[in-house]
Amino acid sequence: MDQPIDQPTDQFVDRPPRRQPLPLEGITVVAVEQAVSAPFATRQLADLGARVIKVERVDGGDFARGYDTAARGLASHFVWCNRGKESLALDLKDPRGLDVVRRLVADADVFVQNLAHGAAARLGLDAATLCAAHPRLIAVDISGYGGSGPYADKRAYDMLVQCEAGLVSVTGTPEQPVKAGIPAADIAAAMYAFSGVLAALVRRGTTGRGGPVEVSMLEALAEWLGHPLHHAMHGGEPPARTGLAHAVIAPYDAYPTADGGRVLLSVQNDREWRRLAEQVMGLPALATDPAYATNAARVAHRERTDALVAGALRVLGTEEALARLERAGIACARLRDLHELAEHPQLAARERWRRVGSPAGPLKALLPPITLPGGDEARMGDVPALGQHTGALLRAVGMTDAEIAALRRDGVAA
Question: Pairing state of beta strands 262-266 and 252-256?
Fold first, then answer.
């Protein structure tokens, strides 16, 4: 007998929505990685729920562990890029150590490496070799300049690639080019490796096959140089280095305030200039003065424009200057240092800080910027000590305690 339509069936009963798991739960990643590009990529995967097994050298591990001691005795780069991973310390030049990695890869979903050019191939850990042996595996090769071409064998460090990619040519002051204050080439490569893995996982879900993923630091950063590159390639002059100013917009810079702060503002159109002149600077005549009324005129008279804005703001405290700019609808910001970023009220209000464990005790860390409402929070695991998980991982691939002891005795594992 059919159920009456006014009698709800189970499938239509309102239930609270189930909380979504992290999207990469059940995914295993093996990484032979060092420095920033590969570790930062795999940390994104770990935060989203993947199990990441980090293979390190027995003699000191990932050399980023030794960059500094700023994070309570630990290296700041390492703390940033390596939370939530299992550390396995092996000598891959010994066949026994290499065999462990091959056993782990056989059961993995993703393999990532950023060894020097040719080193992975000599070990049989390059993407082409691994994917031929394991059709469902996604294998990522991260390099400085790519696997072919005249630069393939060049040593690639972040600053060098920033120079080769032209970033330094557009960063700094008119007198002095400078590199970015963060490892921009490493981060660019890391994020394309991360997104490449996600894309390959989607493809594997429809085809059943993994495959190689190739990312080079030069090509990743060259993509990020898209605006100035296209500006220069297609008939324009390369954008000038302008410090905090903008090459083709004025006023757009940082201006000192009465209490020693600096306020940045950006006027994007002539309506905003009128509001700035009238409501912030108290100089309404500038709104219609032909020397300043249009952006083209303000750029042509940039020094005078900046001097007028600076003169109006230098008599105001930082808070008052920002309040006036906000009321006038002018885009503005405070020039903060890193200590001020750590105390940023917006990050605090959105509860973006967490504590992660480490060999030095709990450390403050930011939630990753990918937020998945309705799902589990990012898995921000501990920063591992070198070789912290070696014994457990060796047992997981079938080794006995006696075999593990032999590897440790011979310096193949630590």
Answer: antiparallel
Residues 130, 135, 137: CA angle, nearest 5 degrees: 60
284 close to 228: Cβ distance less than 8 angstroms: no
E strand intervals along 257-342: 262-266, 331-334
Query: How many residues in the chain?
Result: 414
Cβ atoms < 10 Å from Cβ of 80? 18
Q: 116, 413 in Cβ contact below 8 A?
A: no
Return the pLDDT at 6.
Answer: 46
CA nearest to 216, candidates 147, 113, 169: 147
Residues 366 and 352 sit within 8 Å (Cβ to Cβ) = yes
* Token reading at 336: 């903060």
Can you tell me the distance from the alpha carbon of 88 to that of 388, in angstroms, rounded to the nearest whole number? 7
Torsion of CA 375, 377, 381, 383, to 10 degrees: 130
| pLDDT one-digit tens code per residue, 236-268 | 788 888 888 888 899 999 999 999 999 999 999
Q: Among 186, 289, 306, 410, which one carries the catalytic annotation? A: 186
* Chain segment 334-344, per-residue pLDDT in tens: 999 999 999 99
Start-to-end CA distance of the chain, whole Å, equals 69
For residue 251, is the peptide bond before it cis, meaning its omega torsion is within 30 degrees of 0? yes
pTM given for the model: 0.91
Decide if 410 is catalytic.
Answer: no
**CB distance 318 to 263 below 8 Å:** yes
